[in-house]
Amino acid sequence: MEASAKARRVALQIAFWTVLATLLLSVLLTFVNVANVNQLSAYDDDWNDLSSFRQDLETMGVETRSLVSSPLLLADIEDPRNTTYVIAGVERDTLSLPQFDPDGLIRFATEDGYSPSEIEAIVKFAQDGGTVIVMEDFGYAGNIADAFGLSYGGWQLYDTVYATELDYNYIWMCVQESPCGMNGTELDLSTVDTHPRWGDDAETATHPCALIDGEVMSEEDAGLCAHHWVQTAPGQGVVEFNASYRVLLNNATGIEVLPEVRGAFNEINILAKTSNEATVDVNGDGEIWVGNEVTAETPDLWGQFNLSVEACADRSCDPDEGGRILFYADGSMLINALYDYEGFNDGAYGDVEQPVPTNDNRRLILDVIAESLADTSGEPTGMASPNAQVIFDESRHAQNAVLTESYNTVYFLLVYFTGEGLAMAILFVGLFLTFEMVLLRKRDPQGWRHVFSIIYYGFGDAERYGYYAETEKIRQVFLSKVRNQSGLTREEFDDLQVQELVQLISDDVLANFAVKPAKYNLEQTVALVKRIKAWGRG
Prior knowledge:
Helix content is 33%, strand content 15%.
């Protein structure tokens, strides 16, 4: 009988844990997005990852970190001024969990990749002096742009200024006030101008690399400006700063400045535009049909579109005067195939079907990093500040391993329940209700046994029948009385042999009651109580 009960108990436990594991697995499969292709990660080295960019940063003395849970952790950064936060291609939406929106109302769904509290954390990071780089096209980073009065189009953009060596999906972005043009089938280099802020005059430019332009030094001493260093002798070279950029974009979209919408920063600068003949495939059918008006027959758009926009806390956009955020209309502009096009063309990332043309993607982003993280505490040297770091957001990249993706999801939930106001309230209420349920289901403890308790229950007491049913409690009270009357400690009494206990009691009926548990009817229990009350008086 006992073995059968034990087997049933084990079976129930196995069933319970099986059901619990099934529920947890179903929840993880709902939230976890395991992809066959892992891309846009700074910690993988395929052609469509960002490992070359990260390695360059580390070589220049910049610490790199990854954020795998939530941007809410940006609030813990001690030195935002010397920190750059990089978001490259948000490949999935955030978990739709309850949270407070900016109006203080509870929201159960988020239409884009970051929750309202995460957007607030990113904005707060930039307001505290940090630099944010957002590279996106058709992903889920749109609500970050919304917070700054901008909007990602989300439709593929085509331009007449494109890389004919590849195809029309690859367009050229020249970072300058007016767009560049084509000379036949090639980019017209005579139309390539300089960066709107950095310029090409070293005397007026404020870029850290422009301030050391022409100085002779070793490549290591060039620090964040090493990509401008040109060797002139063994171990020596000169910094030759160049602020003109022809950036190759792949499957880009447009960025719109929303009219009459006030974002987190008032200073909005358009850094790059398409030509006037660009088109947008609004309905996504792969064909372009444009007209004077948008109709069912001509649903697509044409004209000029923004490819890069910068929002700054200060009019000068100087990182020492406040934070900033840069938006680019392509989430893949820093992948190894474009950033390290020479290595890609040499087969460093696999077989090459078509070589990538020369571009300035690497030089542009490293100049952005140099302006953000250069040490400005003394004379300009181009070296990174002591606390310089770049944080790559890996939290919205699909992983190709279940354990890795599950870890990221659990980490996200941990940060959510410890950083989101509504989540902490839900967690507190849940723990409180669980604690209350445990207390309600827990049996009340047995009353204290006392050596004189036996005296309380006499004839005429309304509660005596309930007490008489608890023969085990009566036995414990009697044994306590024997121990106390014999002057023994608990340890001494527990060490007594059965024969010694019988001799101490010296009453056959009570000794049998004490050492041989059995069932007693009410009449027998009443007789035992009387006998216990009288025991020891003589």
